[in-house]
Amino acid sequence: MGIFDRNKGKKESKAYPVQKAEEEWQELLDPHSYHVLREKGTERPFTGQYYLNKDTGIYECKACGNEIFHSSKKYDSGCGWPSFTEPIRPEAIDVQMDYSHFMIREEILCGNCGGHLGHRFPDGPKDQGGIRYCINSVSMDFKKEDDKA
To answer: What is the pLDDT along the chain (149 residues), one digit of tens a residue?
Structure first.
């Protein structure tokens, strides 16, 4: 185990409310979403379907439907991935340290199923808390708010 061991400093295995066998996740998710959500992969910057999305609505975890971000908290950070200033509610996400790729980052996981969503950085808009939640589009679904509501 080296200094950059991905599990260093992490809690053992947190029991999330939604639990499935890996075979079930593979059946439920497309290969790219499975790679990101279950194997902690990433999508290439500037390619995600929600990167430029300006519609009003709720972003949900693609694996379990947990509501994670509202579009009112989305902004263009220029980083290449959808960026948010805060989750829809604190328990919607789980934060763990990530020591992979010779970096020290805060990994963002779905608070309901533990799926990998992206990372959190301290370079967000100062007037909105200074935090940037950098999230993979393939880890989310988007539910557009009804225009008639």
So the answer is: 333 344 444 444 678 999 999 999 999 999 999 999 999 999 999 999 999 999 999 999 999 999 999 999 999 999 999 999 999 999 999 999 988 878 788 999 999 999 999 999 999 999 999 999 999 999 999 999 975 44
Where do runs of H (alpha helix) occur along 1-149? Answer: 22-28, 31-39
Place of tokens 């593979």: 26
User: DSSP label at 128?
Assistant: G
Any idea which residue has 């970096």 for tokens? 103
The torsion defined by the Cα of 59, 73, 91 and 37, in degrees rounded to 10, comes to: 40
Q: Give the catalytic positions in this structure.
A: 134
Question: In one letter, which amino acid is 144?
Answer: K
